[in-house]
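WARN no homologs supplied; continuing
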Amino acid sequence: MVFGDVAYQYFDWWHEMIPEAIDINGNQEDFNHYGLFKNKAINLGLTVGLNDYWNITISQMISERCMEWEGPVDEDGNSLTVHHRTECSSSDFFDDEKRIAFGGYLGDARINFRYLLFNQAKGPGPRFFLGIGFDIPSPNVITESPWKKIDITPDDGIDNPVYTPHRHFYLSDGAYKMNLELQFFKKRMQYPVFWGGTLSGNFPLNDSRYGFSPSPRYQLSLLAMSSSLPFKKIKLGKLSISSVGFTFTVAHAGRSKWEGLGDTPNSKSILYVPGINVLFGLEGGGGFGLNLTRGFEYYFNENESDIEEKTKIYGISLSYRKVLDKVIDKLYWGK
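OK structure emitted
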């Protein structure tokens, strides 16, 4: 099976003033931070059945993340804070001659193995999968903590720790990770005709070469879909609606850390994402899925370094799936 997912996410964000932050003119910051963050991503992949029970999926994320700073700027339009500015992850970022972020478009690659524990091949019944996989980091990372401070000693001889220019977002956190998942789905004769979900965990196996320890992540994704009968007369060219349903995702991120600096502020969070999903069949094979979502994120303010933050999240994604009527004889060894 070949597949592709195109997604667009829109974050309208705000957080309060950062304690002890100094602006680019050397003055104490007296303003909140706010702006827009946009994520455009394409995930391309291939799934190959190794036998009747195992398959392998290889996928690659291609993405660009862009910040639009809407806070105070100077006469030349430059942001007054070293924390944010209008920029994209596709470009490198330097503080003088020091590279702080490697720009690019490639995110992490993923290899997943899934085992079919149980499958009701025809008619109503359950489908149960177990999965294990690994994320391979890309080189598009940041090289130091956005929360690192340096000591500047002015004429009065008093050390004054300040933040240097940095970037808060990246395509890869630079660590290898292990993925574990359980998938359970059930087909029924009554509504919802198809329902189920996926429970997954993503666990870093090492720190990045720059000393970053990423967050462990847990996610529960649920869906409930209708049958195609109410929509069988609706045609959109070569497309026909096969089902409409609802999705709901809960995602939890634990604390991330930087070597020598401890926990990253505002890294522990929980995200709730309800959505509407529409599936389309395509004449000649294959199908599309359209998903509209609205995210609600809550940050755990457990540390003194945590600050109040609010984010409005909107998303739209379009996916394509096509099963290829092909057999790789050298891989397939039968039942």
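The longest strand covers residues 33-49.
OK
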